[in-house]
Amino acid sequence: MLTRRLALAALSAAPFASARAQAAWPDRVVSFTIPFPAGGSADLLARLVADRMAPVIGPAARIVVENRAGAGGTIGSEYVRRASADGHAILLGTPSTHGTVPALQPDTTPYDPIADFTAIAILGRSPIALAVPTNSPHRDPQALLAWLRANPGKASWGSSGSGSVGHLAGELMSLSAGGVQAEHIPYRGGAPLVEALTKSEVQYGWEPLGSLAAAARDGLFRIIGMGSPTRHPLFPDVPTMQEAGLAGFAASTWNVMLGPKGMPPAIVTRLNAAANQVLAMEDVKARLATAGIDAVSDSTPATTGAFIAGEFAKFKDIVTRARLNLAR
Description:
By secondary structure, this protein is α/β, with parallel strands linked by helices. 44% of the residues lie in helices and 19% in strands. It folds into two domains: 28-125 and 253-322, Bordetella uptake gene, domain 1 (D-Maltodextrin-Binding Protein, domain 2), CATH 3.40.190; 127-226, Periplasmic binding protein-like II (D-Maltodextrin-Binding Protein, domain 2), CATH 3.40.190.
């Protein structure tokens, strides 16, 4: 009888112990994993958000950013997936980690991009931009598309790598334009693609605006189209691909905050509120805007999860329609 009473007491106390643990969160350093090398726009965003979020969460809170790069971002993502779901391990998710790589390589990606993570918040978005060399005769997407249709197979175009969001944006343009034919040249990152555009090695390229904006402003090449549904304030004279006649065209890069599957809802809510508060700060928005990133400060865990699922479905559709099959 005594043993039964002790067991019942332990069971009744468990919810209160769990509530106390959540109320005390964070009781140690929170690790914010960036699944890519330091130095890129994703790294800038994560470090800025982490630095500002810590005091919002609490005076003793500490968030440490860790870069765990490799395999298109899947190494860092898998690290967080396997971590304890107690709110002390979070991840910066991107189109690569939770879109293009799982869509292109479902058999070798070690996680399910939707089911294996807890969606917390959308942090920022940036359109994918269409750029051409300065000596290109094409001043808008319509002119480029007309030339491509008239010269099938004669052009080459670049992205920052096979399976990158720029690669799939280029494939989407081809599909949306009725199957224009051009050779894809995958470069090893955004910087080599910028150099290729500067040297006119390709007729056009697709890359996130954050990687192209500075060089385009310096006149090293021209941005002639935006993948966003509306024009971007950094380049208000550049039309969208929808304006160019590709109905429904939408291609953007994005950053989301995720955690391991099964995180306590109370902690998820606190992280979401803290992220939104930081991203609504004027100086934070201004800093990100200079890098071509639009801060998002109104997401919820539910809208974040729906957004990721929608993006993943879109990438899977592009992969299927373009018949892409990339081996890691």
